[in-house]
Automatic annotation (TrEMBL):
PTM sites of type 4-aspartylphosphate: 53
Pfam families: GerE, Response_reg
Name of the protein in its database record: Two component LuxR family transcriptional regulator
Lineage of source species: Bacteria, Pseudomonadati, Pseudomonadota, Betaproteobacteria, Burkholderiales
Keywords annotated in UniProt: DNA-binding, Membrane, Phosphoprotein, Transmembrane, Transmembrane helix
Coiled-coil segments: none
CDD domains, per database record: LuxR_C_like (cd06170), REC_NarL-like (cd17535)
């Protein structure tokens, strides 16, 4: 497992690295103190997961997350920040982060975040889930999966029947959770963008939700994991992102 740490505070980065090595002795750690260094390492060193601070010398706030996800759309990014506001957590989910770990968190939370994200799930602290549910008014929404919620701490992936989904809907959900926009998902699945958008609409209706952010909060709350998916070669992702930006200008 390769873990990329992007934080401009060397002491914090060193402490985080020691903690990760204690939790995962075989982990290989990559360090970046700026956003540009982080993007370069994300493109060349093929990390499995990134921990990203939002306040960097060359990337302020959520802009740093947006730039990193633009460079590597399918790369799992977990924000690690001193900002614990519900607004910031929600914004990071909208920008397709797969997790959010406050810097005040315990080592157990860090461990849970890595395990959840690498298993195709989402990690959010309990306080953030409660706050987001109040903010986006999903407290009455109940998933219609046919299976029962798994015990806390379980990382056994769900399957399509267990969630009441078709195989194509399940695959769409797996890519959606990983942070890909609909056009990129369509490319991965060999489908038209409009078809993927229909799948996403079906998913939201299936879980009785309105937006992707609500779906991510639900998955984090229920501890639902979807397993791993193949990752596009970083150079191809960069080309796809550039092409898409050209088309939308």
């Amino acid at each position: 497992m390769r873990v990329l740490l992007v934080d401009d505070h060397e002491l914090f980065r060193a402490g985080l690295a020691l903690l990760i090595k204690e939790l995962f002795p075989d982990a290989e750690l990559l360090h970046a103190s700026t956003l540009s260094q982080g993007v370069d390492l994300a493109m060349t060193e093929h990390p499995d997961i990134v921990f990203l601070d939002l306040e960097l010398p060359d990337g302020h706030g959520c802009d740093a997350l947006a730039q990193l996800k633009d460079a590597r759309p399918s790369l799992p990014v977990v924000v690690i920040s001193a900002d614990e506001s519900v607004e910031t957590v929600g914004r990071c989910l909208e920008l397709r982060a797969m997790g959010y770990v406050p810097k005040s968190s315990s080592p157990e939370a860090l461990h849970a975040a890595i395990v959840a994200v690498l298993s195709g799930g989402v990690f959010l602290p309990a306080a953030s889930i409660a706050g987001l549910r109040r903010t986006i008014d999903t407290h009455e929404a109940q998933p219609r999966e046919s299976g029962k919620a798994q015990p806390n701490g379980s990382v056994e992936p769900w399957d399509a029947p267990g969630l009441g989904l078709t195989p194509r809907e399940y695959e769409t959900l797996a890519w959606l959770v990983r942070g890909l926009p609909s056009k990129a998902i369509a490319s991965k699945m060999g489908l038209e963008d409009i078809t993927v958008r229909k799948y996403i609409s079906h998913l939201l209706a299936h879980f009785n939700l309105r937006r992707r952010t609500e779906l991510i909060v639900l998955l984090a709350d229920k501890g639902i994991t979807l397993g791993t998916v193949s990752v596009t070669d970083p150079s191809r992702e960069r080309g796809s992102s550039s092409a898409e930006r050209q088309r939308t200008r």
